[in-house]
């Protein structure tokens, strides 16, 4: 997402994303690969993340 790209440019450590339909993929942002997991539990287990950011599209 554009927010992820902006966060990476600002120096934020993005360790992964969650999308059940894209699990197992790696998304590239300006040369930085971000793995995509199927669930938050999987992402936390694989990365040790202890903080999350949630983006929900408007209706």
Unreliable spans are none
Give the overall silhouette: globular
Major sheet strand order: 1-3-2
* Number of DSSP E strands: 3
Could you give a short account of the major beta sheet?
Answer: 3 strands, mixed
* Rg calc: 11 Å
Alpha carbon gap, first and last residue:
17 Å
Written overview of the protein:
A 3-stranded mixed β-sheet has the order 1-3-2. By secondary structure, it is α+β, with helices and mostly antiparallel strands. It is built from 2 helices and 3 strands; from the N terminus they run H-E-E-E-H. The chain is globular. The mean pLDDT is 94. It has a single domain, classed as 3-Layer(aba) Sandwich (Rossmann fold), CATH 3.40.50. A hairpin with a 2-residue loop joins strand 2 and strand 3 (32-37).
Task: Give the secondary structure arrangement, pairings included.
Elements: H1 2-9, E1 17-18, E2 26-29, E3 32-37, H2 40-47
Parallel strand pairs: 1-3
Antiparallel strand pairs: 2-3
